[in-house]
Design brief:
- The complex is a heterodimer of chains A (357) and B (310).
- Chain A has 357 residues and is of the alpha/beta class.
- Chain A is 42% helix and 19% strand.
- In chain A, helix 6 links the parallel strand 6 and strand 7.
- In chain A, helix 2 packs across helix 9, helix 3 runs parallel beside helix 4 and helix 5 runs parallel beside helix 6.
- Chain A is globular.
- Chain B has one domain: Orthogonal Bundle (ABC transporter involved in vitamin B12 uptake, BtuC), CATH 1.10.3470.
- Chain B has 13 helices and no strands.
- In chain B, helix 10 crosses helix 12.
- The longest helix of chain B is centred in the N-terminal third of the chain and has 27 residues.
- Chain B is globular.
- Chain B starts with 7 loop residues before the first helix and ends in a 13-residue tail after the last helix.
- In chain B, 47% of the residues are buried.
- The chains are: A alpha/beta (357), B mainly alpha (310).
- The interface between A and B is large, with 43 and 41 residues.
Chain lengths: 357, 310
Amino acid sequence: MNLLKTILAGAALAVGLTGAVSAAEKVKVGFIYVGPTGDFGWSYEHDQGRKAIEEAFGDKVETVFVESVPESADSERVMTQMALSGTDLIFATSFNYMDHVLNVAKKFPNVKFEHATGFKRSDNVSTYSARFYEGRTVIGHIAGNMTKTNTIGYIASYPIPEVIRGINAAYIAAKKVNPDVKMKIVWVFSWFDPGKEADAATALIDQGADIIMQHTDSPAAMTIAEEKGIFAFGQASDMTQFGPNARLSSIIDNWGPYYVARVQAVMDGTWTSTDTWDGIKPGMVKIGEFSDKIPADVQASATAIKDALSAGTMHSFTGPLNKQDGSVWLKDGETADDGTLAGMNFYVEGIEGKIPQ
Amino acid sequence: MDFSALSPVSLIVSLMVAATPILLAAIGELVVEKSGVLNLGVEGMMIIGAICGFIVAVETGSPWLGFLAAMAGGAAISFIFAVLTQYMLTNQVATGLALTLFGLGFAALLGHSYAGIKPPKFGSLDIPFISDIPVIGPLLFSHDYMIYISLMIIAGVWYFLTRTRGGLVLRAAGENHDAAHALGYKVIRIRIMAILFGGAMAGLGGAYLSLVRVPQWTEGMTAGAGWIALALVVFASWKPWRIILGAYLFGGITVLQLNLQAAGANIPVAYLSMAPYLVTIIVLVIMSSDKKRASLNAPACLGRIFHASS
């Protein structure tokens, strides 16, 4: 019995020691995800980014992640736990973690935080996001060209600027090629609830939508679109396996390069609080391959839009544009500034319905 | 706003689809609670059923076998709960919560290579002519088979609990386990059977989600349906028929608010999403305000550990 105790104590000591040694050498990176890594959407792509870090740095990093973390005080506990266990850099990958990130960051000034899609920063909190709306412009263009019922269904999650921006961008692009287009928007108040996302898709299809866009994280709507023989777009991830016939294209989030760069900055001691908002050009937003269901001329014009967005010769929000109430937002040729986009809380003219409060 | 696009018939059809997973899970949990056991692991059993059913349906090509496997899977995982709480006398609340966590993790592991696969299509009732009658056809005669089966299960449970000796014995175990024991009934065995039935029903509900309602496997796809099922049992005040009412009300509110939104109605979405939970709280308040009514319905030995001391 005594011998066993000695061995155990020795083992514990050894583990403790190696822990201390490796902690000094390795950079430890933590991730918190709002859904499961197997959602094949948003959280899946962030986890791909985490894997890119491991691939790039090998033994020099250690990554940990916690999935399905609610956007509540629970996230504070998870991040505190991570910070206490020697994590150097924490990526919080959902909008509503915002205030919780700042709270935890205040308590751990030596730990660096990266908050996705947020807008509040401090000395050790950076924010980063992708200009998903550029992707929305491309798929909006395709949808406007291809809808036969002139009705696009949009499954929205929460009424936050990022989601509203996506709705506006897609609508503007669709309206440009199809003046009669209507957008039916359903808010499901969840990022990840396959059952409800499927119900929302069914409701939209029942009411005439023949193309579905989504700003939720699971491929449920894609599956329903496939079943009902209509079209949809992959969101965050390609999702082609869920709707081989239904999927027209996709907006793919590509976080890997950014994550690798930030970990490198921590290693070099050059990490500072920054605000990154990258689009198609640096490759943070990718447009998935076009389905052959899209007519060749539409494929060509969509590619042209993608290239123009990438080259910076086109902006998704270019005047003349009015707000929903008819007041002027952007004059002819004027483009939206990032500040307005970051806080966008209004629909553009032509979209029906109100943003839920 | 355009309400002409809102078809009451398709609304009712989709609300039945939305309600069936929680209906099945709730009727199982009702039997478990009637026997005096509180199993909070419904969510875990549902997701295990969802993946077991999905795997078997994909591998064999038969959704029917999938549903059977889902029942077996749900029952198997509930057996862990049964052994722990009935033989080892662990705390039911803690064990149930652990079962949910275990189920979610284990299902993710099982389903790792099954994401992005399309399950075989599950059939619907199709009687020549009758299913094609306008309104009545789609409302009554062209649902998928599982919807009819779920309603038959409700009827069966009602019959068993109120009209058979076995049901009386099961309720006796839930109302007063010491008295049931003194009369020579095997309280532990009765409860284990109830738990297994609850697991099988939760598994079936989960499989309905992964094979019919969403037709795909995604980790964590039950997304809290198990907790709604638990609330439903209370809402139904442990009466089988009220489970139908409750489940269709829960499902109905969800589907109706999504459809109203699609029709362009400006409705307070957040409040409607909350409504089912608010109703449950109100029911709880009403029940607890009237001690006599509450004692008529809630099984008196619910959640209490039984130890055959003599």
